[in-house]
Amino acid sequence: MGLGWVSASFRIGPDEYGMPLAAPGQVWSYLVAWTATGLAAAAALRAVAAKVPLYGLEVVVVLLTFLGTRLSLGYRPEPPVLGAMAATALTAAAIWCVLALRRSFRGYRGR
């Protein structure tokens, strides 16, 4: 979350390229939303990692939280869109968990 916030403060290269800088105004609601989303995704992934080997869970959480924070600060979406973005990030984390559990379950059956 902090990495996304810092990256929204400056840009390397011309203004025509990449995502816009952080829009002026309050950022706290977006930072709180993405902190909660990142923590929820991390909790789900850690719960699965306690049961089965799960590779790259830190990368998944950091990437989803970074991208969500960066996009939110650059475009300042309305609450329904922000909720959809958070739901998409949590769905991606859940899919990562399901794939790990499925792979582990197949391994126990001997295939």
Folded structure, characterized:
By secondary structure, this protein is mostly helical. Helices cover 69% and strands 0% of the residues. Helix 3 packs antiparallel against helix 4.
Helix vs. strand class: mainly alpha
Mean pLDDT: 85
What is the N-to-C order of secondary-structure elements (H for helix, E for strand)?
A: HHHH
Whole-angstrom Rg: 17 Å
Which percent bin holds the helix content?
Answer: 55-70%
Question: Are there runs of 5+ residues with pLDDT below 50, and where?
Answer: none
How many β strands by DSSP?
A: 0
Q: What distance separates the N and C termini?
A: 40 Å
Biggest sheet statistics: none
Strand content: under 5%
Q: How many helices?
A: 4
Shape: elongated
In short:
The protein is built from four helices and no strands. It has 111 residues and is mainly alpha-helical.
What are the defining features of this structure?
mainly alpha; 111 residues; 69% helix; 4 helices
List the helices and strands and how they pair.
Layout: H1 2-7, H2 28-49, H3 57-75, H4 79-108
Helix pairs in contact: 2-3, 2-4, 3-4
